[in-house]
Write a structure and sequence with these properties.
single chain, alpha+beta, Nucleotidyltransferase, domain 5, Actin, Chain A, domain 4, 13 helices, about 40% helix, flat
């Protein structure tokens, strides 16, 4: 281990469409912020980042713009993403290193379906933000490591990582991804589905942030014994006046139907190309769900009923990717084979 490695602060980041989680070597998870920024339109000045910016969403004047710099798991606004990473590095004390000597090394989780150009954009944003070295790991691989699955063993490990922008499905064995599927249909599309349902059924217009709250409070993917309700405030599309309606958890299940079918089809498509011996392992051991989507009530039962395979929810599903990437940065000398080899020019 060289002098730089001894005094540097290594950082792992789950750069998600909805939330970004930061892991610092020797400290663990130190930060979880919404991936959102408030910017003054005329000057481009950053007004707020993360939690503060999310509080402003839907409540700002025309002079302020709320930006989500990632869409469907990839960078949609390079400059804002760079600012976000710089803010995160500075907030955890990583930009100057532990003793102010060096910049941090960084491992970033990315969707398995992005292109090499998109990969290089992530690396470039990390380097511009203050990292001295940036490496990438596929999110399903990081999630499997974070869920303590035996990814280096000759056995089939299946992970379904449902984030904000993408749903990542992968079968992992002997330290590599044997079969994978990545679709850009996940948490954001669930929010949009609930929003559209309220427009159709109640002529009520709500924001995507209100739809997200509904999903988190009463959303479900499978019929539940105790039907829950929530009051929803929005604007009547007919008379333009504020109005309140009450909806049930069963209604959210109906609203989410098309999104859930897409996720299930992605899981089935991955199983169809999985080698028979690994498929047998998965039948025996079950598959694991991670990501924020794993918290949707009944998602495990929904996927299990659709595939005939036991579905387990990973411990700390929202943090799995960051924890897995964190294990890699803590053991770079040993776990570097899990990182992607990306040509960077």
């Amino acid at each position: 281990m060289g002098l730089l490695d001894r005094f540097g602060m290594d950082i792992a980041i789950d750069l998600g469409t909805a939330n970004t989680v930061v892991y610092v070597s020797g400290k663990g998870i130190v930060l979880r912020e919404p991936t959102i920024i408030a910017v003054r339109k005329e000057t481009g000045e950053i007004i707020a980042i993360g939690v503060e910016a999310k509080r402003m969403a839907g409540r700002v004047p025309e002079t302020i713009q709320i930006i989500r710099p990632l869409k469907d798991g990839v960078i949609a606004n390079f400059e804002v993403t760079e600012k976000l990473l710089e803010y995160l590095i500075t907030k955890v004390g990583g930009k100057k290193g532990i003793r102010g000597l060096v910049k941090p090394r960084m491992v970033v989780g990315i969707p398995s379906g992005i292109t090499e150009v998109e990969m290089r954009a992530v690396i470039e944003a990390a380097l511009h933000a203050g990292a001295r070295e940036a490496r990438l790991v596929y999110e399903p691989m990081a999630a499997a490591i974070g869920a303590d699955l035996p990814v280096d063993q000759p056995t089939g490990n299946m992970i379904v990582d449902i984030g904000g922008g993408t749903c990542e499905v992968a079968v992992i064995s002997l330290g590599g991804v044997v079969a994978k599927n990545s679709i850009r249909i996940a948490g954001d599309e669930m929010n949009e589905a609930i929003l559209q349902y309220l427009k159709r059924q109640y002529n009520l217009l709500i924001s995507s942030y209100t739809a997200e709250e509904i999903k988190m409070e009463i959303g479900c993917a499978f019929p539940i014994e105790e039907i829950r309700t929530i009051e929803v405030k929005g604007r009547d599309l007919i008379n333009g006046l504020p109005r309140t309606v009450t909806i049930t958890s069963e209604e959210t299940r109906v609203a989410l139907n098309d999104v859930l079918i897409s996720i299930l089809d992605s899981v089935k498509a991955t199983l169809e190309v999985t080698p028979p011996d690994l498929a047998a392992d998965i039948m025996d051991r079950g598959m694991f769900v991670a990501g924020g989507g794993a918290l949707l009530r009944g998602i495990d039962k929904y996927i299990s009923e659709g595939t005939g395979i036991v579905v387990n929810t990973a411990e700390n599903p929202v943090l799995c990717v960051a924890l897995g990437a964190g294990k890699i940065v803590e053991n770079l000398n040993k776990l570097w084979p899990f990182l992607l080899q990306v040509k960077y020019y």
